[in-house]
Amino acid sequence: MNDQPGRAQKQSGLISMSPVKVFGSAPFTNVARVLLCLEEVGAEYEIVDVDFHAREHKSPDHLARNPFGQVPAFQDGDLMLFESRAICRYILRKHRSTDGANLLREGNLAESAVVDAWLDVEALQYDPAMHAVFVQHRVVTALGGEPDERVIAESVARLRETLDVYEARLTTRGYLAGDEVSLADLSHVPYTRYLLEMPYGPPVFGEFPRVTAWWERLLARPAVRKVVSMMGGGSG
Amino acid sequence: MNDQPGRAQKQSGLISMSPVKVFGSAPFTNVARVLLCLEEVGAEYEIVDVDFHAREHKSPDHLARNPFGQVPAFQDGDLMLFESRAICRYILRKHRSTDGANLLREGNLAESAVVDAWLDVEALQYDPAMHAVFVQHRVVTALGGEPDERVIAESVARLRETLDVYEARLTTRGYLAGDEVSLADLSHVPYTRYLLEMPYGPPVFGEFPRVTAWWERLLARPAVRKVVSMMGGGSG
């Protein structure tokens, strides 16, 4: 077993190889994104819950990890990181030898740029539209309020416009950045999982058969199935 | 002159070295971000205007470049890209040998991750707050409407919270990702330039002396001065 590439890298000594720590829990979409990457490369990790009810996210200890008082934060030895997509890039670069899917495509100038572009689409177009629907449908109602149906309708319309571009894109390739899965696809998993549990999700996805087939291909990945399960009943 | 590193790379033949094309004009902040990177590495480029009044951004030609019908789009030989930060990464990787500032820090696992994190802060926290202020103050009024002062106040409050984190961060280092400038800093230039022309900007910046000094260090860079000048009177 000790000549396995993954273990060889883990024993190189250049980088800390004790389990990394993820601060925050799996139901948070930005935490789930990080867990997905850790599962994809088979890294060891430890989840450290942050108690929001006790306002632990605004404690000096947590603010030293994430100055914005958000989750996730991430620790690898002396290195402390935040921002989920930056953490994902770090994990995939560190474990490049065990990243069978080559999820960043670094080393190929053009292919890595296409992954970057579609990862930015997820972060800047898909995520904000999804976040707005999620906040209205789940957070506002959990706090006893009435969801703002106008905000939901506008966000679902934005989402539909984005998925319309995805549908065209997926006509000639299996994944957003090409014929193979990349971080750009995986980054969509956490919010898509929640979307499909909300009444707005299945009708919108049903309009886009190639997007639906793409989602099913993602769900067939063991790492995706595991993290979707860790996200649980969607409490966060 | 022909043994200069930049030219040597340009003649390598592995990558197209005819001038790249940037579709969109400098007053657009997302276009200016790309121009900054091109200027920093001394790349040759051609700007191709997109006529929004003639709805050229929604033409089939432009949608083939950017499926969301936005600017910028970017062409390097057969490669077409969109999303400004992805284009910036591409430019900096391609011209790594002429990037004296090493603006992505790739090759150093920890340092590149810190650049990624603060670039995501710019994209996901700074830019949305600035964009909201800019739309109300400049776009709504240009269209003859009344700016929504509540939106402006909320966005300025968000901006102030973000700059408060920057001010603490800049206590022990000259730039957001460390002692040297990176793409994370430069990515703030286009909107900061507009902010400081609006009535909300100088009072907010005035509360943060280290942020103000950081901005002055950025403005001292020839590439920054050139692109700030290209952005002109702020028409877009």
TrEMBL record, chains A, B:
Gene Ontology cellular-component terms listed: cytoplasm
Top EC class for this record: transferase
GO molecular function: glutathione binding; glutathione transferase activity
Catalytic activity: RX + glutathione = an S-substituted glutathione + a halide anion + H(+)
Known function: Conjugation of reduced glutathione to a wide number of exogenous and endogenous hydrophobic electrophiles.
Keywords: Transferase
Full protein name: glutathione transferase
